[in-house]
UniProtKB/TrEMBL annotation:
This is Glycoside-hydrolase family GH114 TIM-barrel domain-containing protein. It comes from Paenibacillus phytorum. Residues 60-246 form the Glycoside-hydrolase family GH114 TIM-barrel domain. InterPro entries: Aldolase_TIM, GH, GH114_TIM-barrel. SUPFAM superfamilies: (Trans)glycosidases. Signal peptide: none annotated.
Length: 276
């Protein structure tokens, strides 16, 4: 009888510790003291850095900032989160582009999928080589520079652009595997995901926050939005922080977002010209 109890205890311990250490997101709540934030992809000018240092949290393009500049911003207590595009590779990211294999691109009828507006390509996250490139980029651009976390952009492409189930489900599973690797290798880095509402089940509990880019005020009249707001409110109770951004010059989206306890900013001029 004693032996069986000991065996059971060992099994329970093995099950508990088999999960990635990081996330119990909802226990850590790394953004619980954040009252304002900024999403800024512009150059680290002197004026920009002065403004960024006034924020509780900022999301930046880390390849543009030096380690010393990041440390300077952090001296005021500002959390610095680094941008990384997951499902797309932009042409400007030459550090990644030069390492890509032809198999890393997601194809449609044998052709690469190009987004002309962003000059970026849709990638195949199912490829282990591509996931390793992302992990290497996180190391050099985010971890080695001492940032506090990462902002995973273009995750919503899984919902919007990869819609056949034979590809979408394995891509979501690959995304979950990627998050497990990130959490295992960089357990101290916080993670914010951009959109990807229908992929959320695969992302929890590895993410600490979700950004609703292109938030709009009429969510109560929009069934698609209302369904996702209801889901996010449940996750907020467990500790998920929800950020929102409105891209036009209107005030009501901010009021509606704050009623829902979203951390909100308006960015009518985009993310590169000035600090929002």
């Amino acid at each position: 009888m004693k032996t069986s109890k000991v065996t059971a205890a060992i099994i329970v311990s093995m099950v508990f510790f088999s999960f990635p250490f990081k996330k119990q997101i909802q226990a850590s709540k790394p953004f619980q003291n954040v009252k304002d934030y900024s999403l800024y992809y512009g150059a680290p000018t002197e004026q920009a850095i002065i403004q960024l240092k006034t924020k509780d949290l900022i999301i930046i393009e880390p390849q543009l900032f030096s380690k010393l500049q990041i440390q300077d911003i952090q001296t005021t207590g500002t959390m610095v989160i680094g941008y990384i595009s997951v499902i797309e590779t932009p042409a400007w990211n030459t550090l990644r582009v030069k390492e890509l294999l032809s198999s890393d691109y997601l194809l449609k009828q044998g052709e690469r999928i190009h987004f002309k507006q962003w000059d970026s390509y849709l990638m195949d996250l199912r490829q282990s080589h591509y996931r390793q490139l992302l992990l290497s980029e996180i190391k050099t651009s985010i971890s080695d520079k001492g940032l506090d976390g990462m902002f995973l952009d273009t995750v919503g492409d899984i919902d919007d652009w990869i819609q056949d189930a034979a590809t979408q489900t394995p891509t979501r599973e690959a995304y979950r595997s990627f998050l497990q690797d990130v959490s295992g290798q960089y357990p101290k880095l916080s993670i914010i995901q951009n959109r990807g509402f229908d992929t959320l089940d695969y992302a929890l509990p590895y993410i600490d926050g979700l950004l609703w880019e292109d938030w709009r005020a009429n969510w109560k009249e929009d069934l698609w939005m209302k369904t996702r707001v209801d889901r996010l409110r449940k996750e907020q109770k467990k500790g998920l922080t929800v950020f929102s951004i409105h891209l036009n010059k209107e005030s009501s989206p901010g009021r509606e977002a704050r009623k829902l306890k979203f951390l909100h900013i308006d960015a009518p001029d985009g993310y590169t010209k000035e600090v929002n």
